Automatic annotation (TrEMBL), chain A:
One of its GO terms (biological process) is Notch signaling pathway. It is a multi-pass membrane protein. The lineage of its organism: Eukaryota, Metazoa, Chordata, Craniata, Vertebrata. It comes from Cyprinus carpio. This is Gamma-secretase subunit PEN-2. It is found in: Golgi apparatus, Golgi stack membrane. Its main location: Golgi. Belongs to the PEN-2 family. GO terms for cellular component: gamma-secretase complex; Golgi cisterna membrane.
UniProtKB/TrEMBL annotation, chain B:
This is Nicastrin. The keyword Transmembrane helix applies. Keywords: Glycoprotein, Membrane, Notch signaling pathway, Signal, Transmembrane, Transmembrane helix. The keyword Signal applies. Belongs to the nicastrin family. Gene3D superfamilies: Zn peptidases (3.40.630.10). One of its GO terms (biological process) is Notch signaling pathway. It is a single-pass type I membrane protein. It comes from the Eukaryota. It is found in: Membrane. Its main location: membrane.
Length: 153, 641
């Protein structure tokens, strides 16, 4: 028997805020994973004109602009773009012989890596705290959760 | 392809049947929650598996808890070992995967009550502010034999084995594979049992209801985690009361005669409750049968209100709801209408002819209440004992009305199996001479029936006097032992359970009592079926004063039945704790008991191999498969070259 129990307006607002906070966590993770990949694919097609990831045949200016766009894109709460940036351009930046655009690419990669490490640290800390203390937080823990496991605290 | 799949599934289910032996006749222990705690048992979501071991001696206990080489164990517990000390040791051990208790009379201890020593101590009338020296059983411990097992929280499943044939199957499996030979450990493969009873609710009612609420509001797939315990109270009165007029009934002074309708035990839906509940129900029914004709011929000035309260084992669900409705003017009468109250407690085990009347010493300090109670009792007596756990306590919480509770015990219960699976016909000393058919047993006058009929006569006469009736009519009031038909109640289960059921809106026992009351107090009318279901269309019938039942009637000689319409003033009133109406799930004043939901409860046995073999076999299979893949990949190279 499923019944919606009416609650007061104030309690409703509080529930809504906590609910949104909880959903924000999931939104972040969904955004990060799906939009990140989407951008990756789109940018590949848009900037290089073909759908293969072949940096060899790209002129250096295009490589630099691609690197910059991924670096700037990552600030929209998309750390996966920074991860992709680092993995993709690592060889370009550090293992290839020097060319004019390389120092700039190097700095973008370093900054992307820094941002990535920061994100990983923050997410790991938050996830550890949440998983450990959710049961203890009682009401707040329940409102922040998307699915609550059955039968365990 | 579909046919192929179907064939595969048939094959897979027949393979499953070859591996597992499903145990059908098992009774689980489920999780119940209240405002602050969870009680009962829980298994993991994919069942708990353990190697079978029968607990018959102390050395078996050592084997299970410390020396056995194949933990975790699934304990088959003989009746003698189902007590607090053994269960607590199991609870604290990590080597026990679950317990299956054999329910039988062999080896049963002299007493076993899994209830607490002080039933309903927090929701009775005695508290810090009212009779504080009598609160928490400081005055009298009512259930001293109680070991509190029903109120412990176990993290492994506990099942009851009631069927002797099934227990034999388990024993055979144990003897064939698991028994120790000459003191050495048994070898793999061993017989194992898996118990599934995963409960959805956790922590307490507040958490559970909050999560249910959240699920209903925001989840795509809402799931209810727990349900409040609820059912119906049954009530009737000697003069019909207008059911649509709620609140204070003008010119009505009412004497309430009450008893409880429910019981419980450690396991789910098992509550024979013979001495605890059946004795009270049967006595009150016999009282009504004895009193009703006289009240119609020579009506006393006051109305007599008979009530059967459901859910009293769980912090007085039914009586607290009725009192709440009375105070909110949502019931046919209110507290101002109540003159006094007489409650029938446990009256089955009277030694000799003694019957004890309990009254509340705190309210008797008030002179007017005292004189009423003394009149009720017929004599003055010492009043230093508190009231035993009874529905009357909830009425006292609302208003200091005079009242008595009748019982067969003075200080602590004579019932040695209070609220347990063993409170059955044998406990009530209901025995039949050998060779009687079940039909003959139904009409046989047992000693217990005669004893209860005596109590019923006493109660009926007292009620008549209390209602202001004249003494000259008292001799006509006698309860007939043949009507005191206990045996039909002794096979029922009195657990309150949850709301609407498969076979009708109320519990079968509630319906049964309702129909018996209709039979005893109602009149047969010659209405047709459609008229019986819509009596308001007729001017001679009054739906506010009476309820109408379409019954199938007795079976005649050639097996046909002639149904007819019965008009009676018997009604059901909802028995759900006011805490759920007020949405105060953490309430300290009202019952907050809920029962968890679950997906499946089952048990099965099978043979297990050793842990090493379980790990190695899939690894071996993997290894051979990869080797095959390598060979097939290299064939190109091998053969081309």
């Amino acid at each position: 028997m499923i019944t919606i129990i009416p609650i007061s307006l104030q309690q409703s607002c509080r529930v809504a805020v906590l609910f949104c906070l909880g959903r924000w966590q999931q939104c972040c993770s969904i955004l990060i994973s799906s939009v990140g990949y989407l951008c990756m694919d789109l940018s590949r097609v848009f900037f290089t004109g073909n759908s293969t990831m072949n940096l060899e045949r790209m002129p250096n200016e295009e490589k630099l602009s691609l690197c910059r766009r991924y670096y700037l894109g990552g600030f929209a709460f998309l750390p996966f773009l920074w991860l992709v940036n680092v993995l993709w351009f690592f060889k370009e930046a550090f293992l290839k012989p020097a060319y004019t655009e390389q120092p700039q690419i190097k700095s973008y990669i370093k900054k992307s890596a820094l941002g990535l490490i920061l994100w990983v640290a923050v997410l790991t800390t938050w996830i550890t705290i949440f998983q450990h203390f959710r049961a203890r937080w009682g009401e707040v823990g329940d409102y922040l959760s998307f699915t609550i496991p059955l039968g365990t605290a | 392809m579909l046919k192929g799949l179907m064939f595969l599934c048939v094959l897979c289910s027949s393979v499953e049947q070859k591996i597992y032996v499903v145990l059908n006749e098992t009774v689980p222990c489920v999780r119940l929650l209240n405002a602050t705690h969870q009680i009962g048992c829980q298994s993991s979501i994919s069942g708990d598996t353990g190697v079978l071991h029968v607990l018959e001696t102390e050395s078996d206990l050592d084997w299970i808890l410390s020396s056995g080489p194949h933990p975790p164990y699934m304990v088959i517990m003989e009746t003698a070992f189902f007590n607090r000390s053994v269960m607590m040791r199991m609870k604290n051990s990590s080597r026990v995967a679950g317990v299956a208790v054999i329910i039988s009379k062999t080896g049963l201890a002299d007493n076993f009550s899994p209830h607490t020593t002080c039933p309903n101590q927090n929701t009775g009338v005695y508290s810090e502010s009212y009779g504080s020296d009598l609160a928490n059983c400081n005055g009298t411990v009512w259930n001293p034999l109680g070991n509190g097992l029903s109120y412990e929280d176990f993290s492994f499943p506990v099942f009851a084995l009631k069927d002797e044939n099934q227990t034999q199957v388990l024993r055979k499996c144990y003897e064939d594979h698991n028994q120790r030979v000459n003191g050495s450990a048994p070898q793999y493969p061993l017989c194992a049992m898996q118990l599934f009873s995963h409960m959805h609710a956790v922590t307490d009612t507040v958490t559970c209801m909050r999560r249910t609420d959240l699920q209903n509001r925001f989840s795509i797939n809402p799931e209810v985690l727990c349900d409040p315990l609820s059912d119906f109270n049954v009530w009737t009165s000697t003069r019909p009361l207008n059911n649509s007029a709620k609140g204070h009934a003008a010119d009505e002074s009412v004497v309430i005669a009450a008893t409880r309708l429910d019981g419980r035990s450690f396991f789910w839906e098992q509550a024979p409750a013979a001495e605890g509940t059946v004795s009270g129900i049967v006595t009150l029914l016999a009282t009504i049968q004895a009193l009703y004709p006289v009240t119609q011929e020579a009506p006393p000035p006051r109305n007599i209100f008979f009530s059967f309260f459901q859910g009293e084992a769980f912090d007085y669900i039914g009586s607290s709801k009725m009192v709440y409705d009375m105070e909110k003017n949502d019931f046919v009468i209110d507290m101002n209408n109540v003159h006094s109250m007489l409650e029938i407690g446990q009256v089955g085990l009277r030694s000799g002819r003694s019957l004890w009347m309990h009254s509340d010493p705190v309210s008797r300090q008030n002179k007017s209440v005292d004189t009423e109670v003394s009149e009720e009792e017929g004599k003055l007596s010492l009043f230093s004992h508190p009231l035993p756990p009874s529905s009357f306590q909830r009425f006292l919480r609302a208003r200091r009305i005079p009242g008595l509770v009748l019982a067969d015990h003075n200080t602590s219960f004579t019932n040695r199996y209070y609220e347990s699976m063993y409170d059955d016909a044998e406990n009530l000393n209901v025995t039949y001479p050998p060779g009687l058919t079940p039909d003959e047993q139904l009409v046989y006058e047992t000693d217990a029936a005669k004893s209860l009929a005596e109590v019923a006569t006493l109660v009926a006469r007292s009620l008549y006097l209390q209602a202001g009736g004249e003494e000259k009519n008292l001799n006509n009031i006698t309860a007939d032992p043949k009507i005191v038909n206990i045996s039909v109640f002794l096979t029922a289960s009195f657990y309150i359970g949850l709301g609407p059921r498969v076979h009708g809106p109320a519990h079968s026992v509630t319906r049964f009592v309702q129909y018996i009351l209709a039979n005893l107090t109602g009149t047969v009318t010659n209405l047709t079926e459609s008229q019986c279901q819509n009596p308001s269309e007729l001017s001679t019938e009054n739906k506010d004063l009476f309820s109408y039942f379409w019954v199938s009637g007795p079976a005649s000689v050639n097996g046909t039945r002639e149904p007819f319409c019965v008009r009676a003033s018997v009604r059901l009133s909802k028995a759900v704790s006011p805490a759920f109406e007020l949405l105060e799930y953490g309430s300290r004043n009202y019952s907050t008991w809920t029962e968890s939901r679950w997906k499946s409860i089952r048990a099965r046995i099978f043979l297990v191999a050793s842990r090493e073999l379980e790990v190695m076999q899939p690894a071996l299979v993997e290894l051979t498969e990869t080797k095959q893949k390598n060979i097939s990949a290299k064939t190109e190279i091998m053969f081309i070259k």
